[in-house]
Design a protein that fits this description.
By secondary structure, the chain is of the alpha+beta class. About 30% of the residues lie in helices and about 25% in strands. The strands form 6 sheets. It has a 10-stranded mixed sheet, sandwiched between helices.
C-alpha cells in the first residue's frame, strides 16, 4: 500500500511538540522507522537565495531512490523544491515522498509516474493532517515510444540512448549529467525520455535524481543530474574516470547503437535485443603473406622470431561484451599502444625483407612465378583496429590472386608452392537467427495491451475483418478468448459472451445475452488466421453492441495471459474556465464519439487543476486542494482559495466547485464548474457570513458600489458624531472645573445654619445645588461620553469593514480574471475492470505534465 509524507518548516508538525523542519502530512498508521527514513531523503540546496531575482530558477529535485526498511524494499518517488520563506523568515523547502512496494510499481516507470499531474504535492495549505493508505492515483498506462525531443534541445537526442544503454550494461554504474540552469525545468523530461527506451521490467531498476547534491549513507543513485557551477559539477569535470554527459558543452554525435537510434527516431527495432549479448565469431585466418614470412624465418634462423599480430585460426573464440557507450567514448588510449604498433610494424618489415631475399636467391626462380607476390609493407597504423582491417583485406586479395589447385599439376611443383595457395577459405559466419517470439509478445510489447476494435461504421459484415494483433501459436486450440467487465459496461443484467465456432476452431463469435437468458444475438466475430487475430462486426449488431469496446479481452495461450483494452480514449481539450455566462457556470459535455457510455453510476472521473499555483496566480498563495482527485457521479471536487488580505489565513475568499452530474436542461451528465464567493455582511453590529454561487462578478460589482456608498455615509455619520463627542467632552470638562472651583472657593457658605444660602450661592455661581449633585452629574455625563466613543468605534469599524469588503470584491474580480487566463482543468473519464483503468475520455496527454 502506497504511503507518503510531506516534510517542510512549520510552527507545528504532526508529532506533538514538533516544529521547524518536520513532517506535516503523513499516511495514517505509517511505521516510525519508515517515516524517519523518508525524512532523511529531504535534503535540498538552494542555488539562489530567497530574495535573489533568480530565485524562481531554483531547480526542482525529482528522484527515484530505493530504501529497505524492516526487510521491505520500497521505491521512493520524491519531489523536493524551494518553498520561499518559512514562518520565521528563513529559507524553506517542501519535500513530498511516496513509498511504493514492488507490487505497486506502475509499468511506465518512475519518471512517467512523477510527471502525472496531481501525483506530487507542490504546495502545502498549512494544515497538518493524516492521509489514507493507497490514496495515490498510480498510472496503468503503457505509453508508446517517442522521440527524445527534450534531449534534442541541448544535444544530439542519441545521448538519451547512451544513458539508457548504461542502465542495461551495469546495474550499479553511475552516470553524471551536468545541466545548465536554463534546463532545470526539463530534467524530469530528460529522465523520462531516457527511461522509456528501456524494457518495462528494467525501468524501476534505475535510480535517479534530477538535482543531485548528496544522499544519506546506504542510498544509491545511478543517474545524477548536477547543476552547472556547483561543486559536484566541478568534481565531475576534473575526474577523468567519471562517466559524464555535459550538456553545457558541444557533445557532438552520440556513439551509434540500437537505443541511440531509437532515441532519435522514436522506433525500436524488434530484431535488436537491448540486453547485453555474448557474441561468437571465428578468428581471421593467417594471411598468405604471413605464411611466406613464417617459411622465410625457418630458412633464416639468424632473424629473431616474433609473435604474429594476428592470432592463429581457431574454431570459435568467445568475445567479451564491448565497453559501455559512455566508457568507450571517454576512455583514454593506452600509453604503450603506439610503441607496440611501431614495434610490430618494424618486425613485419624485417620479416618481409627476409622473405623477398629468400625468393631472389639462386634456385628459386623456377617457382617464383607460382608464389603469390608479397604486397608492399604496411604503413604505420594509428590503432589496432585499422591494422586488423588491412590484414583482412590482404587475405581476400591473396585468395583471389592465388591459382586454384587441379589434379593435373605436378606434385613436385606443388611442393614448391607456398602455403599461401593451400590456405583454406575462411568459414562463413553464421547468421544470427532472431529469437523465437513468445505467443503474446506482440500484444505486450508492440500494442502494450491495447487492441482497438474497428469503427462500427467502417467494419460491418461477415467478411470484413480488421487485424488487431499477432498471436504466435501453432495450435489455435491453445488460444482462449473471453470478455470481462460486460456487466459494468452494460449494467442491465446483460453480458457479452465469447463462444468458439464448433466447426471452425480458429473463430469465436461474440454474443450478447440479455438479462433473462432467453435471448441472444451476435455482436461480431474474432478470427485467428496465420497468427493474425482479427475482428469484424456483425451485419446487424444488437443495441448497445458497440459498448463491447469498453470491455476487456482476456487472451490466454498455454499459461500466459494478457488483459487487453479494446479501445483508445477519446482525446479532447482541457477545460478552459469561463465565468462570462449569465449564471457564471461552465458546463462541459463529453465528446459524442465516446458514446454510448456505460451506466453513469459505474463511471468515475479523475480531475487535475493545471496552473493553480502561487507562481501562476499572482497575489494568491494559499490554496486547499483535495488529495483525492477521483470523484463519482453526483459528487464534487472543491478547491478553496484563501483571502490574501486577511490576517486570518483560514478565511476563504473563493471555492472552485467541479461537479460530475446531470447537466441542466439536458438528459446527459457532464462536468459543471462554478465558483462560490465567500464573505461577511453587517446586520446591525453583527458580521454574518454569506456566500453566492451565481453571477459572482455582478454580485461583487454591486457590492463594491454598495460598499462605497456605505463608506461615504458612514464617514459622514462619523464626522457628525465626532462633533457631538467634542461637545460632550466640553460639558464633562466644565463640570470637573466647577467642582474643583467650588472646593477652592472661600466665599461658599459653610455653616450649619447656612445650608439654604449655600444652595443659592452654588446655583447662582456654578449651576449645581451641591457638590454631591455635581459629582453625580459628572458621572452621568462621563457615561454619555463613553457611549458616544463606543459608537464612534463602531462607525470606524464599519468604515474599515466596508473598505475591506471593497478590497475583497476587487480581489475576487482579479481572481476571476486570472482563473480564466491561467487555470485549466484536465480530466479522465474511466471505468475500472479487474483493477484495470479503462479510460473513455481524456484531455490531451501533454496537459497532464508539469
Amino acid at each position: 500500500m502506497s504511503q507518503e509524507i510531506v516534510y517542510t518548516s512549520a510552527p507545528q508538525g504532526l508529532k506533538p511538540g514538533s516544529r521547524g523542519f518536520c513532517t506535516v502530512i503523513a499516511t495514517q498508521g505509517m511505521a516510525r522507522n519508515l517515516s524517519e527514513r523518508l525524512e532523511s531523503l529531504s535534503g535540498y540546496r538552494h542555488a539562489f537565495a530567497v530574495h535573489d531575482e533568480n530565485a524562481h530558477l531554483n531547480p526542482v529535485n525529482y528522484s527515484h531512490l530505493k530504501v529497505t526498511v524492516g526487510g521491505q524494499e520500497y521505491s521512493v518517488l520524491s519531489r523536493i523544491c524551494d518553498a520561499g520563506q518559512d514562518y520565521t523568515g528563513r529559507t524553506n523547502k517542501l519535500a513530498h515522498h511516496v513509498a511504493l512496494t514492488r507490487s505497486e510499481r506502475p509499468p511506465a516507470g518512475p519518471a512517467y509516474q512523477l510527471q502525472k499531474a496531481g501525483f506530487c504535492i507542490e504546495e502545502w495549505d498549512s494544515q497538518p493532517r493524516y492521509t489514507e493508505r493507497n490514496c495515490h492515483h498510480l498510472s496503468s498506462d503503457h505509453p508508446p515510444l517517442t522521440q527524445c525531443t527534450s534531449w534534442s534541445r541541448w544535444c544530439d537526442a542519441g545521448w538519451a540512448g547512451v544513458l539508457a544503454q548504461s542502465a542495461l550494461e551495469g546495474k550499479h554504474q553511475t552516470q553524471t549529467i551536468i545541466f545548465p540552469v536554463e534546463a532545470g525545468s526539463s530534467t524530469l523530461a530528460l529522465v523520462a525520455e531516457a527511461i522509456q527506451l528501456l524494457p518495462e521490467k528494467k525501468r524501476w531498476e534505475v535510480t535517479f535524481s534530477t538535482y543531485f547534491t548528496k544522499l544519506p549513507a546506504g542510498v544509491d543513485c545511478q543517474w545524477r543530474f548536477v547543476l552547472d557551477g556547483t561543486p559536484e559539477a566541478d568534481v565531475a569535470r576534473r575526474n577523468p574516470r567519471m562517466h559524464l554527459i555535459d550538456l553545457c558543452v558541444d557533445l557532438g554525435t552520440a556513439p551509434e547503437g540500437t537505443l541511440v537510434e531509437a532515441a532519435r527516431t522514436g522506433q525500436l527495432s524488434q530484431q535488436q535485443n537491448t540486453e547485453t549479448v555474448v557474441e561468437f565469431r571465428e578468428a581471421a585466418p593467417i594471411p598468405p603473406q604471413e605464411a611466406v614470412q613464417q617459411n622465410a624465418i625457418q630458412d633464416f634462423p639468424d632473424i629473431p622470431e616474433s609473435t604474429p599480430p594476428v592470432p592463429p585460426p581457431l574454431e570459435k573464440t568467445r568475445r567479451a561484451p564491448g565497453p559501455p557507450p559512455l566508457e568507450k567514448h571517454f576512455r583514454k588510449p593506452k600509453k604503450n599502444s603506439r610503441k607496440l604498433l611501431m614495434g610490430t610494424g618494424v618486425i613485419l618489415l624485417l620479416l618481409l625483407s627476409a622473405g623477398i631475399g629468400y625468393l631472389m636467391m639462386p634456385g628459386q626462380n623456377n617457382t617464383s612465378k607460382k608464389v603469390v607476390k608479397t604486397q608492399t609493407p604496411p604503413p604505420r597504423m594509428k590503432n589496432k583496429e585499422d591494422l586488423e582491417k588491412i590484414q583482412q583485406a590482404r587475405v581476400k586479395q591473396a585468395q583471389k590472386s592465388a591459382p586454384p589447385l587441379t589434379p593435373n599439376e605436378d606434385p613436385e611443383e606443388l611442393d614448391s608452392v607456398t602455403q599461401t595457395k593451400m590456405t583454406p577459405e575462411p568459414k562463413p559466419k553464421k547468421k544470427k537467427t532472431p529469437p523465437k517470439k513468445r505467443p503474446l509478445d506482440d500484444v505486450r510489447k508492440k500494442h502494450h495491451g491495447v487492441l482497438p476494435l474497428p469503427s462500427l461504421a467502417k467494419n460491418i459484415g461477415a467478411n470484413n475483418q480488421s487485424e488487431l494483433t499477432k498471436i504466435y501459436v501453432e495450435d489455435v486450440k491453445k488460444c482462449e478468448l473471453s470478455i470481462l467487465g460486460s456487466e459494468i459496461v452494460l449494467g442491465n443484467g446483460s453480458h457479452f459472451l465469447v463462444k468458439p465456432v464448433s466447426d471452425k476452431p480458429n473463430q469465436w463469435d461474440v454474443i450478447k445475452k440479455i438479462k433473462n437468458g432467453f435471448g441472444e444475438s451476435v455482436v461480431g466475430k474474432f478470427q485467428l488466421v496465420e497468427n493474425s487475430l482479427t475482428f469484424g462486426w456483425d451485419e446487424k449488431p444488437p443495441e448497445l453492441g458497440y459498448s463491447l469496446k469498453y470491455c476487456l479481452l482476456k487472451i490466454t495461450v498455454d499459461s500466459e495471459t494478457v488483459y487487453c483494452q479494446l479501445s483508445k480514449p477519446v482525446i479532447t481539450k482541457p477545460i478552459q474556465l469561463s465565468f462570462a455566462s449569465p449564471r457564471k457556470l461552465t458546463e462541459v459535455q463529453f465528446p459524442s464519439e465516446a458514446g454510448p457510455l456505460p451506466p453513469i453510476g459505474n463511471i468515475q472521473l479523475d480531475l487535475f487543476a493545471k496552473g493553480l499555483s502561487k507562481e501562476r496566480l499572482k497575489g494568491f498563495s494559499k490554496f486547499k486542494i483535495p488529495t483525492q482527485n477521483t470523484i463519482k457521479h453526483n459528487s464534487e471536487y472543491r478547491i478553496s482559495i484563501f483571502n490574501p488580505i486577511s490576517e486570518d489565513d483560514t478565511e476563504k475568499l473563493l471555492d472552485l466547485i467541479i461537479s460530475f452530474k446531470r447537466l441542466d436542461r439536458s438528459v446527459e451528465s457532464g462536468i459543471t464548474i462554478e465558483a462560490e464567493a465567500i464573505g461577511k455582511k453587517l446586520k446591525g453590529i453583527e458580521k454574518i457570513p454569506w456566500n453566492a454561487k451565481t453571477s459572482i462578478p455582478d454580485i461583487n460589482n454591486n457590492l463594491k458600489k454598495e460598499c462605497k456608498s456605505l463608506i461615504n455615509k458612514t464617514k459622514s455619520d462619523l464626522s457628525n458624531h465626532e462633533k457631538k463627542i467634542i461637545e460632550q467632552e466640553n460639558i464633562v470638562k466644565t463640570i470637573k472645573e466647577n467642582l474643583n472651583n467650588i472646593k477652592a472657593d472661600r466665599n461658599v457658605p459653610k455653616g450649619k445654619g447656612q445650608q439654604n444660602q449655600r444652595v443659592q450661592y452654588l446655583l447662582k455661581h456654578y449651576k449645581i445645588p451641591s457638590i454631591q449633585a455635581g459629582e453625580e452629574f459628572l458621572k452621568n455625563q462621563a457615561n454619555i461620553l463613553t457611549n458616544m466613543n463606543m459608537v464612534k468605534m463602531r462607525l470606524q469599524d464599519k468604515i474599515s469593514f466596508f473598505s475591506n469588503n471593497e478590497l475583497r470584491c476587487n480581489k475576487v474580480l482579479e481572481l476571476f480574471d486570472q482563473l480564466e487566463r491561467q487555470v485549466t482543468i484536465d480530466y479522465e473519464l474511466f471505468i475500472r475492470i479487474k483493477d484495470e483503468k479503462v479510460v473513455i475520455v481524456t484531455t490531451s496527454p501533454s496537459s497532464h505534465q508539469h
